[in-house]
Amino acid sequence: xxxxxxxxxxxxxxxxxxxxxxxxxxxxxxxxxxxxxxxxxxxxxxxxxxxxxxxxxxxxxxxxxxxxxxxxxxxxxxxxxxxxxxxxxxxxxxxxxxxxxxxxxxxxxxxxxxxxxxxxxxxxxxxxxxxxxxxxxxxxxxxxxxxxxxxxxxxxxxxxxxxxxxxxxxxxxxxxxxxxxxxxxxxxxxxxxxxxxxxxxxxxxxxxxxxxxx
Length: 214
Ligand code: SF4
Fold this sequence. Notes:
CATH superfamily of the largest domain: Hypothetical protein, domain 2
Shape: globular
Bound molecules: iron/sulfur cluster
Distance between the termini: 24 Å
CATH class of the largest domain: Mainly Alpha
Number of strands: 0
CATH architecture of the largest domain: Orthogonal Bundle
Radius of gyration: 18 Å
Strand content: under 5%
Structural class: mainly alpha
Number of domains: 2
Helix content: 55-70%
Low-confidence stretches: none
Number of helices: 12
CATH topology of the largest domain: Endonuclease III, domain 1
């Protein structure tokens, strides 16, 4: 087993995934991903529930709703003025391009599906990848700021590595069928132990494999 494989093996052994409800359909999932950007789970969850109960998180209701009503509902997630515009535009585009149903995109091959999703307002490669990992079961590992930092500290990728390089290094190392777990657990590890400031290297289960503390 390589050193990088050992790192991911230990990560999977030392952590349990927190249970989170799955969205009922890919559009709702996309709404939640958009609301979760730069927001913690609790605030995203509150904003999403408020949106569901006051406007509805389906393309038809979002497209028909006034921007102000969407903004008011999603206030707890922050950046609500910008996000409300994004959500309304995405809803209109999903209706126009996919007849309101993103399922047809999720069954496409990865690159094609990613391209289609990135054609939607506010959907970049990371948002597209998160949706394709969680809702289409693609064996990919989207990279957020925690995953960037950890991969570089551990020397899995060089310091100047970009999104695609980190993604492909992790994807080729992760055990089959565990890509989603690796994504979720690396983020958890980045919040708990390998924090941006003052990482807890002393008690870290990866310390003997990590060049960073030296
Ligand atoms: S030893 Fe420190 S820098 Fe290395 S992975 Fe653990 S917490 Fe992060």
